[in-house]
UniProtKB/TrEMBL annotation:
InterPro entries: AB_hydrolase_fold (IPR029058), Esterase-like (IPR000801), Mycobacterial_A85_antigen (IPR050583). It comes from the Bacteria. This is Esterase. The lineage of its organism: Bacteria, Pseudomonadati, Bacteroidota, Cytophagia, Cytophagales. It comes from Dyadobacter frigoris. Pfam families: Esterase (PF00756).
Length: 241
């Protein structure tokens, strides 16, 4: 399996960012890491190994990006600074990572995927920019970071703004009225996966219901148990990516 390491100074983030790339052809996948995790964790957790057959067959070309969650959602900055830093990260993906992918892979399709908070990143960017993606897979994720749950706090400490609203998929999808965006969403292959005992189950059900109300086709899979661990993600990627 081809493996390549890339690093460059990001103008969008003002720091060096790293990426691991697996494979050399196929549909590119931007794979977002879990909460505050690193670009190499999916490899260490054998999630990439589970994808080896599809990567070696030239079906998937996987780009494991790094996170800056400790500078955004989990920073000590103000709630507004947290969401603005997150937007810097979104711009890094849009203006640096995707052009980088396009330079080395001519494939017209693009998948956004992630686990846990990475699933939030994957779904949020795909729903906000549906014309750029053809498929999104969110695994074990929550899609409204303003909700307080056992062991998972409101990441904005009760603060709310339009900027936060338009970055919480459960909220903005439920009220979506832009027909242009809706048409593009309906072309997107959407897969949501969550465990029956996962704290984020109800939030996933809410997002699925919002999509149904908009008549946006999607697949929603509920696994047994919590299903919020690498051993589950190793099986999920085989089925859904």
């Amino acid at each position: 399996m081809e493996r390549a390491y890339h690093k460059w100074f990001s103008p969008m983030l003002g720091k060096e960012m790293e990426i691991l790339v697996f494979g050399g052809r196929g549909v590119p996948v931007i794979f977002f890491p879990t909460r505050s995790a690193r670009f190499y964790d999916f490899e260490n957790w054998k999630v990439i190994e589970a994808m080896r057959p599809k990567i070696e067959a030239g079906e998937l070309h996987v780009f494991c990006v790094d996170s800056i969650d400790n500078e955004s959602f989990y920073s000590d900055g103000s709630p507004e600074d947290r969401i603005l830093r997150h937007l810097d990260y979104e711009n890094y993906i849009l203006k640096e990572v995707i052009p980088f992918i396009n330079k080395i892979n001519p494939e017209k399709k693009l998948i956004s995927a992630g686990c846990s908070l990475g699933g939030y990143h994957a779904v949020n960017i795909a729903f906000r920019h549906p014309s750029l993606f053809t498929k999104v897979v969110g695994m074990s994720a929550r899609y409204d970071l303003t909700v307080s749950l056992p062991f998972f706090k409101d990441l904005f400490d009760g603060y709310f703004s339009d900027t936060i609203y338009y970055n919480m998929p459960t909220r903005f999808i439920g009220m979506l009225s832009d027909k242009r965006i809706l048409r593009r969403l309906k072309k997107l292959e959407i897969i949501l996966v969550i465990g029956q005992e996962d704290s984020f189950l109800e939030n996933n059900k809410e997002l699925s219901s919002a999509l149904k109300n908009l008549k946006v086709a999607h697949d929603f899979f509920i696994w047994d148990e919590e299903a919020h661990r690498p051993r589950y993600w190793r099986e999920m990627v085989k089925l859904y990516l």
